[in-house]
Amino acid sequence: MVVISLDASSRFLSLQMDHWPGAELFHLLATNQYLDVVVDDTWAGLADLFADGAYASAKGLVRTYVLHRQLLEHLPEPPATVLDVGGGAGHQSFPLAQAGYEVTLLDPSPAMLAKAQQRLQGLPGEAQRRVAFLQADGENAVEAVKGRRFAAVLCHGVLGYLERPEPLVNQLCQCAAAGGVVSIMAGNAKTLAVRPALERRWDDALAAFDATGEVGVLGVPTRADTVEHLSELMQSQGVETLRWYGVWLFTDWLDFSGAEIDLTDSRQVAAMAAVELEASRRDPYRQLSRPFHLVGRKGLG
């Protein structure tokens, strides 16, 4: 386990300000995210693509901003403890560290953790002290953290790479302290026809209405979930659903239609993020989002 310090004085994550500091966000997001502990690091060849490509895109920027704002609606005040399971290069947890939270990033991939440590060096020195790294499989998280309990447990973009969600969801809930928050972002099984339709792959879109997974944009097969099923799994572990959100919608449409988004235009990116955040909270827009964000709270008993 490597412990690195980070300065918590900068409440970057409180992007609740009226303007969005796009330049800072671009800098923070210029790198990476997720995995599974296996003898061979199957993500080694994808770490750069995931970090430097997916997260540096308009969709990656929107994802990080929207999830962060949603999280702040439920997290306790800093310096509460946060466990980011499958946290990859820290795109979601580093901003929390800057906001004053004590973060433990757990990931099974050495390549992803190397990316995270590389990105960490670009943050203020004081914020770095708030971040600790653990190399471990999320399905063994309880053992990896030695029974420690956290005020918040995050798991974003991980479940889709697993055959079944139950083992990992159980671990997430066990790692949460009484009254703690569990935050899961997963692929939406009810919207699998959206991407192939936007790409004009009509036969694939028709088949996707009854599908349970797809090959993602990184070329890796992924499985999708539903809000209802994951809510049931969390409830079986004593975690009650607080709220669920969409994550992105219009950015998807622009992306798959081939429209270009100028990431150097901070006004445009900020406006886009603001629209996506509002859409993520409302029906029918959130129902059409390809990923969803589910937030629950563990009982006090």
Compact summary:
With 301 residues, this protein is an alpha/beta fold. The protein has 12 helices and 10 strands. The strands form 2 sheets. The chain has an 8-stranded mixed β-sheet with strand order 1-4-3-2-5-6-10-9, with helices on both faces. The chain has a two-stranded antiparallel ribbon with strand order 7-8.
Q: Which descriptor suits the 3D outline?
A: globular
Helix content range of the residues, please? 25-40%
The value of Rg in angstroms is 18 Å
Distance between the termini: 31 Å
* Count of individual helical segments: 12
Question: Could you give the order of the helices and strands?
Answer: EHHHEHEHEHEHEHHEEHEHHE
Helix/strand/pairing category: alpha/beta
In total, the number of strands is 10
- Largest sheet features: 8 strands, mixed
Percentage of residues in DSSP E strands: 15-25%
Task: Please give the order of strands in the largest beta sheet.
Answer: 1-4-3-2-5-6-10-9
Instruction: Report the uncertain regions.
Output: 1-40
Descriptive notes:
The protein has 301 residues and is α/β, with parallel strands linked by helices. The chain contains twelve helices and ten strands. The strands form two sheets. It has an eight-stranded mixed β-sheet with strand order 1-4-3-2-5-6-10-9, with helices on both faces. It has a two-stranded antiparallel ribbon with strand order 7-8. Strand 2, helix 4 and strand 3 form a beta-alpha-beta unit. The longest helix is centred in the first third of the chain and has 15 residues. It is globular.
